[in-house]
Amino acid sequence: MIGDRVKKYRKNKNMSLTELAKRAGVAKSYLSSLERNLQKNPSLQFLEKIAHALEVSVNLLLEDDNQQEEVSGEWLEIIQDAINEGITKEQFAEFLEFQRWKQEK
């Protein structure tokens, strides 16, 4: 359910319901209803606001949980190490692009 995924990503960001509602510019009561699966069909505009505040894609909120691969603790450590070393998202994206190019050759 969409509400379960919103709640999961909110908790992963250590964000309260109030904080997410404020950052997304949405009603806390509606967000709470969504997370409790009382609201099942939020508008795309609502989901875009939530996704932006959570820094995830709308597609990630819409995907079936069975299709998503969990990020293991080891991956999180690698990512944190990269951040600690000062590697930017842009540099990491360039590295991935180079790796894809290298595999094609």
From TrEMBL:
Residues 62-100 form the Sin domain. InterPro entries: Cro/C1-type_HTH, Lambda_DNA-bd_dom_sf, SinR/SinI_dimer_dom, SinR/SinI_dimer_dom_sf, TransReg_Diox_bact_type. Keywords: DNA-binding. GO terms for molecular function: DNA binding; DNA-binding transcription factor activity; protein dimerization activity. GO terms for cellular component: cytosol. It comes from the Bacteria. Pfam families: HTH_3 (PF01381), SinI (PF08671). This is Regulator. It comes from Halalkalibacter wakoensis JCM 9140.
